[in-house]
Write a structure and sequence with these properties.
This protein is of the alpha/beta class. It contains six helices and five strands.
């Protein structure tokens, strides 16, 4: 199996090279679409300077089980219909938090389309908890 792969790569190195370049470009494009990713430290600094608002897009039940202090909760599925609730935060960066980062990029794009400055917490609430940072219930 490995021998076949090596043979294919050596016989079709141009195709393999093009494929790898396209794969990297796709990854970079997708990473940029969802807005900037922030670390836990960057999020904390933004909120402490009163320049950011945390928006948790997890389901209400998950949010109630533990969330970042002072975060707002609008479930991902309801975000587009409830964007009006975020108008009062137009001057701040809205930092989107989800379970592990799977919906944050899409939510950021929706917020940006609506005229907000948006970023996502890298790794979601899992990374926040992984660093033993405080959550409230």
């Amino acid at each position: 199996m490995v021998a076949n792969l090596i043979e294919f790569v050596s016989n079709h190195y141009v195709l393999v090279s093009i494929f790898l370049v396209l794969l990297v470009l796709l990854a970079l494009t997708e990473a940029r679409k969802g807005g900037k990713s922030l670390s836990n430290r960057e999020l904390t600094g933004l909120v402490n300077r009163d320049e950011g608002v945390v928006l948790d897009v997890r389901a209400k039940k998950e949010f109630d089980a533990g969330h970042i202090v002072d975060s707002l909760n609008i479930p991902y599925e309801k975000l587009v219909s409830r964007l009006g609730e975020l108008e009062k935060h137009k001057g701040k960066t809205i930092v989107v938090v989800d379970a592990m980062g799977q919906h944050a990029g899409t939510a950021c794009r929706e917020l940006q389309k609506a005229g907000h400055t948006a970023a996502k917490l890298s790794g979601g609430i899992s990374s926040w908890r992984g660093e033993n940072l405080p959550v409230v219930k």
